[in-house]
Fold this protein.
Amino acid sequence: MLKKITVAVDAMGGDNSPLKVINGINHHFQTNKNIFYKIFGNNEEIKKILPTTLPETCFEIIHTNEKVKGTDSPLSAARGKDTSMWLAIDSVKKKDADIVISAGNTGALFVIAKLNLKMIENIDKPALAGLWPNQNGTNIVLDLGASIDCSEKNLVDFSIMGSALFKALFPTEDPKVAILNIGSEEIKGHEIIKKAYEVLNSSNNFNFKFNGYIEGNQIMDGLSNVIITDGFTGNVALKTAEGTANFITKELKKTMTGNLFGKISSLINIKNINNFKKRFDPRLYNGAILLGLDSPVVKSHGYTDYIGFSNSLKMCEKIVSGNLIEKIKQSID
């Protein structure tokens, strides 16, 4: 029998919480019975909204009146050791849970996690990794904002951690690493990128295939599935992609509903339109992982709904069952 996975859940972080968090837990549990949820938050608020389909044997509520607000600065949030976010992370530190998830304040989550959890030996900086659709499936892209300034060693470490994450989430596929750059030629880019390229290109000891450089317009072509960059570039690329996707979706909706012909056309093509919407549904790619710490930390988007939060819980399950932290340690060694 498989050992139950224990997930520490900050129930009070993000928009429309704890309702979306509890509904997300309920939605996730219906297809994933091997999970135990340690839910940190206001006991009275949570009990009011507990669905009858969620058995009491699958969760525990750890009460606190305190929570990290979206307007709190990371440093002020880190002073409150009775918040639902702090207590959830602390439970992972104490080995009472296998992984922690929060949809709350991103900066606060990172600071509190780094205060409580140790870095993996030989890794200097953490990286925030996220999921990104491509033509063949899904990319892992990192760093998305945790480490703005990076050395060549950091970029190599990101390659190792990103590949281990990809293998944990997609065990039947092989990780193929590329460095995000301003061109695909070896002479392009600044010195740090060039040095990282040399290290990755000259060694056969990595558990992934190295595809060299990749440009921004190639991220979604599917030829590479682990995209490496510094946190500044990665965050700009992510926000640009999100804005572009929202623009295309809104313009498509406007075109399909703006006149009678568009409405008729949308009815005829309803199946294709629904497939398009599903493919780019951000809830499917919800959840970013803070890599480099000796325990896994997952950040769900604050604005997502219960479906998105449920998908982040599915990611938590795969990370733990895929033994991500141990894979990273072995690869770094």
